[in-house]
Specification:
About 40% of the residues lie in helices and about 15% in strands. The protein is an alpha/beta fold.
Amino acid sequence: MITRRRTLQTLAAASLGAASIARAADDAILIGYWPIASGLPLYAGLELGIFQEAGLKVEGVKFSSAQQVAEAMISGRIHGSANGTASAVLALAEITSPGLFKIICSNPSNHKLVLDEFVVAKDSPIKSLADLKGRKIASGPGIQNVTLAKIMLEKNGVANPQVTELPVGQHVPALVGGQIDAVYTLEPTGTAGRLKGLTRVLETGVISKYVLGDADAPWFGGSASVTATLLKERPADAKKYIAAYAKAVEHVRKNPEESRNHLDGFTSIDASLVKEVPLSGFTLYNEFKPADIDAFQKFFDVFTERKIFSRAVPVKPLLYTA
């Protein structure tokens, strides 16, 4: 069971050895990512040469959880995060190391822009979240996933829910093997399991509906960021990277079908299945409207109310300003 104290202790331990960001010999910009569908702008930018065209060498560094991405940012081993990195985990990193990063893009999702979902085995008798009482439930790793899963279960009548953390790659096998009855997960897990005839999606857009209270509300669950160190020590490169990342976002928006191909190799879904994967949205730092910030703040406030955050974390100051 994850607690805020344990998470903060882990992040603080990582920060003890932090100095300036350790650069690769070739001055590569290292960006941490969690292998889910919403990291698509980074994947596309790397494979299409968008960063290279900007005169940069950018490398994606794969991690098994958003918390590991945040720890690497604090310790100076990477220069930022890709979309899909849990926003609440980044906020915890901000509490531990104030001024650590700036958000350059976030990925809103809801029942239309699908990312978050509950998944069960194909032949499971479970028909709704209310049917999960007394069942074995899992979620992706990290305090954001576990906390949200518990809130949603509580909202559906599950008292004192127990949630087991599992790496995303184990979600479908654990369902098929009967180790768990349901899992709160993120795309492309639901699509991969469904297309292989192993699992079915129980419900999508669950955070907007049960946590934010509005199925249409944007849930800014993951964010791309750059560290303050990169902005300070390499301002020209940082600006080039942010502009190139925005260009990659625009490519994904204009070419969603083609862009799905970039999920192959970065996520668990292969090239033959990528056309089926739903995509979340993307909101750049200069595109946030007041209503977006309000929804983002409401999400953060849930963690403050649950005492996962030791203090309130205002969203607006975390957004990059050119």
